[in-house]
Amino acid sequence: MLTPYDFQENIQQRAQYIRNRLQAGSPVIGISYENGVLLFTTRRRGRKVFEIYDRLMLSAIGNQADVETLRLAAIDFAHQEGFVRSPDDVTVQRVVGFALSPALKKAFGDPLTTPFVVRALFGELHASPERDLFYILNYDGEFTPAERFAVIAGTTRAEEQAMRFLSETLDGIPTFEKAIPAAMVAWGIAREAAMQEEGEPIAESRARERLREELQEAQIELGILERQTMRENRFRLVPAEQLQGYLRHL
Amino acid sequence: MPALPSSEGAFPRLEVHGTTVIAVKFKGGVLNVGDRRATAANVVMYDRADKIIPLDDYTLMAIAGAYGRAMEVVRYLRHAFKYYARSQLQPMSLDGKLQEVSRVLASNLPNALSGIGLFIPILSAYDPDQDAGRIFFYDASGARFETPDYGAAGSGAERIRGVFDYIAKTKGAFSERPLEEVLREAILLLDIAADLDAATGGIDKVLPTARYVNREGVFEVPESTLREIVTSLRGG
Fold it and tell me: Pfam families recorded for this chain (chain A) (predicted)?
């Protein structure tokens, strides 16, 4: 029997479908530190942290093809703006708010198209850490700015737990050396919490164990935008060798 | 049909504006040094022009000629190289970058022939395949030539050509010598060019620009280092 089309039910079903698929995603932890901004996550196959523009980077959880579409749209918009006007006019607020969000919203609300399965975290570098910005962009086009640190993970509860840990651990603006261990534990908390339906807050020891388990099959991907650098490009992926010291203390 | 605006034969005089930019190899990379003077006819327009410009982490461009047009091309090239690297998740090949420079020079030829937009770049790059620095220079139509050890462009370049030869023949190839030595030679060469060419700024009033590229990327030589070299060249 044909049932009448119910907009609300349709939206709920789409959201549920996306949330189910996002749940298993490897969380991304963003932290603004003294000499830069970092995005920390793990990867099994393809790249996870991407340079978008001179001071802008992106990492996301979700469907690979959808992340790719979002990434290229962001790069196209940023480069057109930067070339026509100035690199200074390329801001995360404009890239996310004007270039990406309306398109996501449109795809999400249109019952005849497949919605994007994606939740993205942008990190934007500024002259001082107090002004660094993170933007979280959701599959339905909603976006939220954040300062100092930000988390995207498989569930809202997982994000909240990791955020709570970061706000308790990071006292002011951390150094890179302090930010990495915090990012590692926050990743473990977010990952573990996303895998549990209900339950107690995740203990730090459990979070560390979760990351160690993950690293048997995956590797860390750490993208940074450097505030003070001699290099032309501020963005780079930190090589695995540089993280060995931190992993020994995990 | 009106004659070409020239009294010197079939082509209008392709005047490269006053400047001296130098590219020399050192062990592991390429050093670029340039004076800071920008001229229009016999007027010094500006004495802090930067003529050595990084295009990306492995490519430097030294420019001689019409500054405005050159800057527009530099802006285009920087975006083109970075856009490619960011969107394709791999850097553009060295050959790809060199072709792109040829293409913009070829499309700039009408400007050059009309006498308003000629500029001649020297491209210095670190080549990961050869693990060495490489230097390329171009003519106004976009033809590309590779030079084995050093190159220079601008009105002062021709005046110091013999000095390069003299240094290379008496002290050995630049590409085998350490950066510190080559930097000193390059500043001295620029000083000689400024002595012989009115359109080349000196090294005393405003320090020259010096950047280099090697396996680690593109770097700027700090002012303090340049200041020390200039002072010691002056016998201080």
Answer: Proteasome
Query: Among candidates B96, B105, B47, B43, which has minimal Cα distance to B74?
Result: B105
B23-42 confidence digits (pLDDT tens): 999 999 999 999 999 888 78
CB–CB of A43/A217 below 8 Å? no
User: What are the structural domains of chain B?
Assistant: 21-229 (3.60.20.10)
The CB density around residue A50, as the number of other CB atoms within 10 Å, is 25
Rounded to whole angstroms, the Cα distance separating A198 from A44 reads 27
**In Å, what is the CA distance from A165 to each residue of A129, A135, A149, A162?**
20, 19, 11, 5
Assessment of whether the complete model's pTM goes beyond 0.80: yes
Phi, psi of A38 (to 5 degrees): -125, 150
Secondary structure string (H, E, C) spanning A165-208: HHHHHCCCCCCHHHHHHHHHHHHHHHHHHHHCCCCCCCCHHHHH
**CA-based nearest residue in chain B for residue A73:** B87
Residue of B50, B24, B53 whose CA lies nearest to B37: B50
What's the average model confidence in pLDDT over B156-181?
Answer: 95
Query: Which residues, in sequence order, are bridge partners of residue B46?
Result: B38
Q: How many angstroms away from the CA of A66 is the closest CA of chain B?
A: 15
Q: Residue A131 pLDDT more than 90?
A: yes
- Cβ contacts (< 8 Å) between B77 and chain A: which residues? none
Domains of chain A: 26-248 (3.60.20.10)
Q: Which helix (H) or strand (E) holds B40?
A: strand B38-40
What is the rounded distance in angstroms from the CA atom of residue A230 to the CA atom of residue A164? 35
Task: Give the residues across from A78 on adjacent strands.
Answer: none
- The alpha-carbon gap from B219 to the nearest alpha carbon of chain A, in Å, equals 6
